[in-house]
Specification:
about 220 residues; alpha/beta; Rossmann fold; about 35% helix; globular
């Protein structure tokens, strides 16, 4: 008998300075489109997209919150990363200040976000590598130092939302780092299991419909 595919849903938030390309990364992932004239996000935008992991017989649905990067919206960020399962801290490889800002976001997530949140540090705009200000070796050293001092692992990747290079790989890495093996396990005591088993919800809805069906 063939094993059924598992379905799970996780909340993901994007953080980073304005104009680093957070929205471009999301739209490349969700719609496979890119717009050079994309306007800055106001507050936050919500999108969803699923990714299939055939070797794990699992499909992950991401609920994505793309937050605004302007300083005046910074106080709203906790509303979006609260209860998040994963976070993308995005920087522009041609802007050193944006990398410093991404590090600030990681510090804040370490202090305020839920325990066990999957964090990805993502450098965008590799299509402008000739203008690079953020040295990749320094980023890797920062990641190594951070991972050595922390129980949680920080994912690092670079991409070009404009060309579409590396974007899917980022979400694949995140999906594989989420607690998908725990979604079907029984919750003991007050232990919180991240994510939602959509397969279970579908079965519950089917049973409810059967129970409410007319004779």
């Amino acid at each position: 008998m063939t094993e059924q595919n598992r379905f799970a849903q996780f909340k993901l938030v994007l953080l980073g300075e304005s104009a680093v390309g957070k929205s471009s990364i999301v739209h490349r992932f969700v719609k496979n489109t890119f717009d050079d004239l994309r306007e800055s996000t106001i507050g936050a935008a919500f999108l969803t997209q699923s990714i299939n992991l055939p070797d794990l017989k699992t499909t992950i649905k991401f609920e994505i919150w793309d937050t605004a990067g302007q300083e005046r919206y910074k106080s709203l960020a906790p509303m979006y990363y609260r209860n998040a399962n994963a976070a993308l801290c995005v920087y522009d490889i041609t802007s050193l200040s944006s990398f410093n800002k991404a590090q600030d976001w990681i510090k804040e997530l370490k202090k305020q976000a839920p325990e066990g949140i999957v964090i990805a540090l993502v450098g965008n705009k590799t299509d402008l590598t000739e203008n690079r200000q953020v040295d990749n070796d320094e980023v890797l050293q920062y990641i190594n130092d951070l991972n050595n001092d922390s129980n949680s692992k920080i994912i690092h990747s670079e991409c070009s939302a404009k060309l579409g290079e590396g974007v899917l790989d980022i979400f694949d890495q995140i999906a594989r780092s989420l607690p998908i093996d725990d979604i079907n396990k029984k919750v003991n005591g007050n232990k919180r299991i991240s994510g939602v088993d959509l397969g279970r919800n579908i079965k519950q809805n089917q049973n409810l419909q059967q129970n409410n069906s007319c004779c």
